[in-house]
Amino acid sequence: MVQGTMSNAGKSLLAAGLCRIFRQDGYRVAPFKSQNMALNSFATKEGLEMSRAQVVQAEAAGIEPLVCMNPILLKPTDDQGSQVIINGKSIGNMKARDYFRYKTELIPVIKEAFRKLEDQFDIIVIEGAGSPAEINLRENDIVNMGLAEMVDAPVLLVGDIDRGGVFAQLLGTLMLLEDSEKARVGGLIINKFRGDASLLDSGIEMLEEKGGVPVVGTVPYMDIKVEDEDSLSERLTADRRGLVDIAVVRLPKISNFTDFDVFEQFPDVSVRYVTEPSELRGADMVVLPGSKSTIADLAWLRERGFEDAILEMHRSGVPVFGICGGYQMLGLDVSDPEGVEGGGEIDGLGLLPVSTVLAGDKKTEQFSGRFCSTEGIFAGLSGLEIEGYEIHMGRTSRSGRCMEGADFTSGGTGTASGGVYGSYIHGIFDGEGIAAAVVKALADRKGVVLSGGDASSHRDFKEKEYDRLAAILRENLDMDRIYGMLREAAF
Questions:
Q1: In this structure, how many other beta carbons lie within 10 angstroms of the beta carbon of residue 400?
Q2: What's the pTM?
């Protein structure tokens, strides 16, 4: 089990790297996270919803994502509550206090999911959540040390040196653990180090002496292009501008921002997540991403002044693209008669001739289709095949009011009109040649020549990144000691 001293210490990435290493070494390996809180999610072949972090780890392990790898998914709806998804199906929204009382009832669900993986795989790499030293949450813990004890797993504890105080992080965490919990910690990892690792030697010696646990590696800060799941992702704060610049509005409840990771294959392309209308200036495409709370985020967008800025960008010829909740926002209106998001109705941006009604039945399914015959800047997408998925609670239909539009993606999943494009499909840019066609169209419109990029499919690109991640970890972790932890746990 990989636990961390805090959120975003690097647990997800290290777990993915270990999955790839064990796979390379010939083991059948699977990831597991009993409970994940995230807005980046995925629909399995069975139409079940799970966290994208475990999807990434499953890819690294070379296996199909299964919902038993993430039996509990919490998708925050506001500061006090979340939608609760059990074994891939939503059971409704809960306030944090209510869920805290309820979660022990889910222990059989967690155990059953873990047993399914045990029956199929040699090694299970478990990811914790937050920190095991959150002593106010220790009672009835089902995701950190409580889970480690439940399934009898040895623990690697990861600290983030990039944010400072890594020795205090690691030692303080160990000091706050119960003796039985501390006994499970077989190794410490210092993550995200920049510079000469030998400068840490004296600190590591003291850490091992005071903590009584060996340091099994110092992992350098890695520029690995693997998906992030955390709201603290550095992708969301990067401000580099490339020859082609894509601006994604960073909505308060942004979801599935991983839809845009594919553009990292192109060194001359930048993806910026913007929170102020002025930051849209100079962008070559404006994107409204997915949202967990479409109506609230649309109201925020309007209050922030984005509506006028987006309309001005559209009038100047800049293409506007919406995915899922962003697609809904581009339409004429969004209504919530069943109170899915608290009720109400709101005017959309009016750029697409569609209307959306939010409904309680959630659509979660994979999608296989194509781009329809498309006019305008993205005409080059016409006929290209799409493999993606839908996760939404809205039903969007074409309106005959005021304007004309055409199908953008097949099966009634998207609409295009006058340089504005919207679709419900997550992963819409990942298919063969799609991101390249988008980038080329934007570069041609701007009159710039790009130096190129990785010409492989996005899947092949990710495979190379997983191998690169594994190579870095092998070089910087004591894998003999980690394998020793596994052998010891097996007997």
A1: 8
A2: 0.91
What gap in Å lies between CA 482 and CA 485, rounded to an integer?
5
SS3 59: helix
Q: What is the CATH number of the domain that holds 283?
A: 3.40.50.880
Among 257, 240, 319, 415, smallest CA distance to 248 is for 257
Tell me the backbone φ, ψ of residue 382, rounded to 5 degrees.
-50, 125
- Kindly state whether residues 346 and 197 are assigned to the same domain: no
Strands 155-160 and 354-370: unpaired
Q: Which two tokens stand for residue 320?
A: 């506007």
Look at residue 127 and tell me if it is in a domain: yes
Distance CA 107, CA 93 (A): 19
Please indicate, yes or no, whether residues 276 and 372 belong to a single structural domain of this protein: yes
Q: What is the pLDDT of residue 360?
A: 82
What are the structure tokens assigned to 487, written together? 């052998």
Give the pLDDT confidence score for residue 454 in this predicted structure: 58
Both 204 and 269 in one domain: the answer is no
Q: Could you read off the pLDDT of 209-253 as tens digits, one per residue?
A: 999 999 999 999 998 888 876 555 667 777 789 999 999 999 999
Residue 372: name the closest of 434, 416, 315, 342 by CA.
Answer: 416
The catalytic site residues sit at 324, 426
182 and 208 housed in the same domain? yes
Report the C-alpha gap between 411 and 37 in whole angstroms. Answer: 31
Q: How many domains does the chain have?
A: 2
Query: Can you give the residue range of the structural domain that contains 219?
Result: 2-226+463-489
Q: Tell me which H or E stretch contains 190.
A: strand 185-193
Alpha helices (H) in 84-189, listed in sequence order: 96-102, 107-118, 145-151, 166-176, 179-182
Q: How far apart, in whole angstroms, are the C-alpha atoms of residue 252 and residue 139? A: 31
Strands 2-4 and 41-43, by their bridges, are unpaired
Q: H/E element holding 437?
A: helix 434-446
Q: In one letter, which amino acid is 58?
A: A
Domain assignment present for residue 313? The answer is yes
Q: Which two tokens stand for residue 302?
A: 């309007």
Rounded CA separation 22/31 (Å): 11
